[in-house]
Amino acid sequence: MTRSSTDGSADLEAVTAVLPRIRIGGERRAPAAAAASPSVAAVPREVVFQARGVGVSYGEKRAIAGVDLDIPRNLVTAIIGPSGCGKSTFLRSLNRMNDTVPGFRLDGQVLYHGHDVYGPGVDRVEVRRRIGMVFQKPNPFPKSIYDNVAWAPRNLGLREGLDARVERALRGAALWDEVKDRLKDSALGLSGGQQQRLCIARAIAIEPDVLLLDEPASALDPIATLAIEELMHTLKQRYTIVIVTHNMQQAARVADRTAFFSLDVSGSDRVGTLVEYDTTEMIFTRPADTRTRDYVTGRFG
Amino acid sequence: MGVRPSDRAGDTLLRGLCATAAVAVIAVMVDIAYQVLHGSHQALSKFGLGFLVHTTWRPNFDVFGAGSFLYGTIVSSLMALLIATPLAIAIALYLSLMAPRGVRSIVGSLVEMLAAVPSVVIGFWGILVLSPFVRDHLEPWLHGAFGFIPLFGPPQTTGSSTFTAGLILTIMVIPIIASVSRDLFDTVPQELQDGAAALGATRWEIVRGVILPSTASGVAAAAFLGLGRALGEAIAVTQVIGAGTGIHASLFATGDTLASRVANEFAGATSTLHTAAIFYAAAILLVIGLSTNLFAQWIGRRFDPSRLVAR
Amino acid sequence: MSTTEVDFTAPLVATGNLRRRHRVSRAAEGLALGSSVAAVAVLGIIVAYVVVHGAGALSLDFLTKEPSPGGGPGGGIAPAIVGTGLLVGVATVIAMPIGVLVAVYLTEFAGPAAARPIRLALDLLNGLPSIVVGLFVFGLLVVGKHQSGFAAAFALSIIMLPLIARSTQEMLGLVPRQLREAADALGVSRWRTVLTVVLPSAAGGIVTGTVLAVARAAGETAPLIFTSSIFGNRVTLDLLGTPIPNIPVQIFTLSETPDPSGYERAWGAAFVLLSFILVANIGARALLTRSRKKMGR
C-alpha cells in the first residue's frame, strides 16, 4: 500500500497543528522542519538522552553492560540487533518500565535533558508522562476507542477540549478516518494494525516529549507495518522517537540513527553490548565493526 | 491385535463406577431439594406465601411466619456485604499488586486461614468478646453520632444484635471475596498494566482505570458468592443475634435470620406443623442459596480473562 | 485550544496535578494495606483469645477425661474429641472415593454435555448452606427415628464431597497429556492408565483436597445440630443407633449456657478444634506446593 501524497500532507498538517510550544531553557523554539533531511548527522543537535555506561542486571544475570549512547531530539533512533541482545531492556530502562521486574538493577546513568532518570527524588510517573511507550503487542484497554485515548488526558486533568484532543491524537496516529464513526465501539474490535495505531494515539494524546517504540510492528502484517512506518516520518517532526526493531529493513527505512547491539559471549556469560552507533546510512553502508557488517549483510542470524 | 477381555471389563467397570458416582452427586443435590420441599409441604399449604411476610412465630399456637427472619437475613447479609466487599477488594488489590513476594504468600495464607476458622468458634468469640465490645463502644458511639438515622437506634443491654451478627458475617465473607478477587486481579495481563503505566498513570489510576473495570463482573460474582455464604450462615449468627422476633428499624435491636432460626429449633419440634415450618424456612434458604449461586456463576461466566487481551 | 505546557527539560519531579494524584494513590494504597492488616489482625485476635483462654482450660485430664456428671466444673472433652474423629473419619470414607471417582469421570470420561450438570451439581452442593444439608439428612434419616452418628457422618460427607471432587479434578487436569498419550501408545488400557499413571501422579492433590475437606468438616456445626446433638458422654461404635459426641456441638451448647465454667471448657474445646484445623490447613498447603512443584507447575 502506498499512500498518496495528499494523505501524507494531511497527516503532516494534523501533526503540525498540535505542535506544542515547548520552552527550552526559557526560550521558545519551534521544532525545525528541516530536521527530516537525512544529511543532518554533522549538524550538532540537541540531545535528549545520554546513556553513560548503562548496565542492567536482573538478579545475578547481566542483561546489558557498558552502553554509551546519545539520542538526539526529533530524530528516529533505531536499536537493532539479534534477539536476546538487550535492545528492549535498554529501551525500557529509558522510562523506568523495568522497575517492577524482580531483581532489576541499573548501573551507570541515564540522563534525560541532563537529569538522571534514576536519580534521587525522581518521580517515575512523571518520567513516563514525558516519555511515552508503545509495546510490541498492541495492548489497548478493554474500553471504547474514545476512552482509550481520553483516559490518560483525563488523569492529567486535561478535560478541557477533550474531544478535540482525542481527534488530534487519532489524526496524529493516522487512525481518525477509520474510527471517527465508531468512537464508542470497543477498541478490541479493531484490527491489529489499527490497535497499534490506537496505542500510538493513546500515547501522543498527552503530548509527551519522547516516544519509545518496542518492536511496534512485529505482530503486524506488512500493510499495517507500512502504515506504522509512514506514521513515524510524520511523528518525528513533533516527537523524539526511539524504536527497537529486529527488522533491519525497517530500521533502514525509518531511522536517522541506528545503534547496533550484540551479545558479548565470554564463557557462559552472555551480555548485551552496544557495538556501533552512527547514522543509519553509515551503519548500513560502511559499518566500522565487522560484527555490524556481518549482521546487516545477513551473515549473522 | 484385539483388546484383552480383562481390559475391556476393567474399562467398563471403571467407567461404570465413575458414572455411578457422578449420578449420585446429582441425585443427592436433587434429593436435597426434594426432601426440603417435601418436608415443608404441610406448612406451605397452610400458610402459602404469606409465610414470607407474617412475623409471628409461635410454636405453641401452631402459628408460623418467617417474615422477620427473612428481614433479618437480608439486613444482616447486606450489611456484611456492604462492609466486606470494599475491604475484600482492597485486600485483594494489596495481595495482587502491592505486596512484596514473601509478604504476599504469608498474608494471603493468613486471610485464607480466616475462612478456615469454624463458625462455631467465631460465634463463641463473638458472644464473649465482640458483643460486649460492640455494646460498650461501637453501638453507643454510632448511636451518638448517627442516632438521627433509625438504623442506629439505642443500643440494647445484651450486645446481641443484628449489627453484631452483621459484623460476624463480615469477618466470615471477607476471605471468600478477597481470595476470589485476588485470583481475578492476577489474571489482568501485565501488558495492560504496563500500557497504563507507560501513560504516566499512578498505581491507583491503573487500578481504577484498568484493573477494576476489566474484572468488575468477576468481582461482582465473588461478592455474590460471599452473599450466599452470609445468607446461609446459621451457627455463628444464632450465637450473637439474640433470637429476637419482629422487625425493627434499628440494627442494634436483637433479631433473627432464617438459618439461625432453623438452627435454634434443633431441640425438637412441638408439632408436625412446626417441623414443616422449619423445613419451609430451610426451603426459602435453599432457593435463595441456589439462586445467588447460579447468579454468581452467570455473572462470573461473563468474565473471561482472554477477552482482555487483543488478538 | 488546550495544549499541555510542560517544560520537558525541568527536573523530573511531579508537575501539574501529579502531586495531588500521588496523594490519592498513596491514600488508596494505604487503605489496601490497612485492610489487609485489619484482616490479619482479626485472625490474630480470634486466635489469640482462643489460645490464651483455651490454654488455661487445657490439661491432660481435659483431653482424656469424660465431662463431669451433670455438666459441672472439671472433667474433659475426651468423648467429643474421639467422636469428632470418628464422625469425620466415617464421612471421609464415604466422601473420598465418590469425590475421586466423580473427578475421574469428569476428566477422563465425560464429554462436555455430561460434564456440565455434574459440575453444576458440585458447585451448587458447595454453595449450599450447611444448615440445609443438616436439615436434609434430618428429614431423610432422623425424622420418625432418632439422631445417629451415621446421619451426622453422612451430612458431613455431603459437605466434603464437592471439596474433594474439585481439588482432585484440578490436580487431574494438571497431569500432563503426554503421560496419558504415552500409555495409550503402549496399548495400555484406560483403566490401567488411570489407576497406575493418572491417579498416582495426582495423589498429592487428592490428599491435599481431602485434608482440607476434613479440616472443614471437623469444624462444621450446622449439619450436626439436627443429626448428632443430643448425646451422652459415651462414644459408641453403634453409629446407626446413637448420636456421637463431637467438639463443634459441644462448643455450641456450652456457648449457649450462661455458666462461666462452661465457657472455660468451650475455650478449651475451641483451642483443640482450631489447632487441629489450622495445622491441617498449613499441612495441606505445604503439601499442595510440593505436589504442584513435582508436576512442574
From TrEMBL, chain A:
> Which UniProt keywords are present, listed alphabetically?
ATP-binding, Nucleotide-binding, Translocase, Transport
Q: What molecular function does GO assign, one term?
A: ATP binding
The answer, when asked if Translocase is one of the entry's keywords, is yes
Q: Which residues form a coiled coil?
A: none
- Location of the ABC transporter domain: 49-288
NCBIfam families the record matches: 3a0107s01c2
Q: What is this protein called?
A: Phosphate ABC transporter ATP-binding protein PstB
Species of provenance: Paraconexibacter antarcticus
From TrEMBL, chain B:
PROSITE patterns referenced in this protein's UniProt entry, alphabetically: ABC_TM1
Keyword Membrane belongs to the record? yes
- Where in this chain does the record put each ABC transmembrane type-1 domain? 70-296
Designated name of the protein = Phosphate transport system permease protein
Q: Which family does it belong to?
A: Belongs to the binding-protein-dependent transport system permease family. CysTW subfamily.
List the subcellular locations: Cell membrane
Q: Which UniProt keywords apply?
A: Cell membrane, Membrane, Phosphate transport, Transmembrane, Transmembrane helix, Transport
Instruction: Report the transmembrane regions from the record.
Output: 12-37, 69-95, 107-134, 163-185, 277-296
Superkingdom of origin = Bacteria
**What is the protein's known function?**
Part of the binding-protein-dependent transport system for phosphate; probably responsible for the translocation of the substrate across the membrane.
Organism equals Paraconexibacter antarcticus
Q: Which Pfam families match?
A: BPD_transp_1
TrEMBL record, chain C:
Q: Where in the cell is it found?
A: Cell membrane
* Listed InterPro entries: MetI-like, MetI-like_sf, Phosphate_PstA, Phosphate_transprt_permease
Q: Name one Pfam family in it.
A: BPD_transp_1
- Where do the ABC transmembrane type-1 domain residues begin and end? 81-284
Q: Which residues form a coiled coil?
A: none
Query: What membrane topology does this protein have?
Result: Multi-pass membrane protein
Q: Which UniProt keywords apply?
A: Cell membrane, Membrane, Phosphate transport, Transmembrane, Transmembrane helix, Transport
Question: Is Transmembrane helix given among the entry's keywords?
Answer: yes
Q: Does the keyword Cell membrane apply?
A: yes
Query: Any transmembrane segments, and where?
Result: 30-56, 76-106, 118-142, 148-165, 194-215, 266-288
Predominant location category:
membrane
The similarity comment for this entry is: Belongs to the binding-protein-dependent transport system permease family. CysTW subfamily.
Described by its record, this protein's role is as follows: Part of the binding-protein-dependent transport system for phosphate; probably responsible for the translocation of the substrate across the membrane.
Protein name stated in the entry? Phosphate transport system permease protein PstA
State the gene name recorded for this protein. Answer: pstA
